[in-house]
Write a structure and sequence with these properties.
The chain is α+β, with helices and mostly antiparallel strands. It is built from seven helices and ten strands. The strands form two sheets. Strands 1-10-9-6-7 form a five-stranded antiparallel β-sheet. Helix 1 packs antiparallel against helix 2.
Length: 243
């Protein structure tokens, strides 16, 4: 079994700068997508710290065994979270900088997904697509009873994030582990894609292009821009193939 990864980031049609960051490597078996939180200064700095930090930590680690991946991710992400907070304290002009995170590590036929915020990872297989990650926003937390209803009334932005890198000293990251099989595709993206292109349309695009997955990041970015491109757009595709 082999994993092939492709990725792309684009400024979109409305933003003056790109606050998204990405790292994609088939050789490393590593995908990192981070989206600096809009409305906060230094979002692009936070996303760069996250992506560069995970890339560096992974490359400096010994070859990870399956039972070592989750502890490695938790420890590395905790350190990156503190680095982001420290950067804001040293540079008051960007204090409060924060970012979402989706990181995929591929080890021995399994994918380990670490997740904070509302960037997403989907699984596509045999014409079907499922969202694997859970958006850490106020609306979802209220809907599940994890926050009181008044939270929505007191906050006009239902999509405001409850969890992300840089928001709090304690970093509560979701870790998912899935066993892979040939023919599966994993889509990891910032909300610049999902806010512009519906899940159903994304599924159709993947179905039409699943045999040329190296083109999918550009095709999906183009679809988001055609629909308005109101945010930065970052897309990574990881395909599971036979050796």
């Amino acid at each position: 079994m082999r994993i092939v990864c492709y990725g792309l980031t684009d400024i979109g049609r409305s933003r003056k700068n790109n606050q998204d960051s990405i790292y994609v490597s088939s050789e490393d078996g590593l995908v990192v997508v981070a989206d600096g939180i809009g409305g906060r200064k230094g979002g692009e700095i936070a996303s760069q710290i996250a992506v560069k930090g995970l890339k560096k930590a992974y490359r400096e680690s010994e070859k990870l065994q399956p039972d070592e991946v989750s502890p490695f991710l938790i420890k590395s992400i905790d350190k990156i979270n503190q680095n982001i907070i420290n950067h804001g304290q040293k540079h008051p002009e960007v204090e409060g900088l924060a970012t979402t995170l989706n990181c995929l590590v591929f080890v021995k036929g399994r994918a380990y997904i670490s997740h904070l915020g509302d960037s997403r990872t989907y699984l596509y297989y045999r014409d079907n697509m499922w969202q694997l990650t859970f958006d850490h926003n106020i609306e979802n937390y209220v809907e599940r009873g994890w926050l009181p209803d008044e939270t929505l009334m007191n906050n006009p932005k239902s999509g405001a994030l409850v969890r992300a890198l840089g928001l709090a000293e304690e970093c509560d990251v979701d870790i998912y582990e899935i066993k892979l099989k040939p023919g599966e595709l994993l889509l990891t993206c910032s909300d610049g894609l999902t806010s512009m292109v519906s899940d159903r349309e994304i599924q159709k695009i993947i179905k039409a292009n699943e045999h040329q997955i190296h083109l999918l990041p550009q095709i999906l970015v183009d679809a988001a821009n055609r629909n308005g491109g109101q945010d930065n757009i970052t897309v990574a595709i990881s395909g599971v193939t036979r050796d």
